[in-house]
Amino acid sequence: MKEKKMLAIDKTAAYQMSLKLMISGGAR
Known about the structure:
mainly alpha
């Protein structure tokens, strides 16, 4: 259970980071 939660959090964190990168990249 704990591992699954950590994986989900890691996934969302990576998703948010990629979103930020795309936004900053598009702004350029």
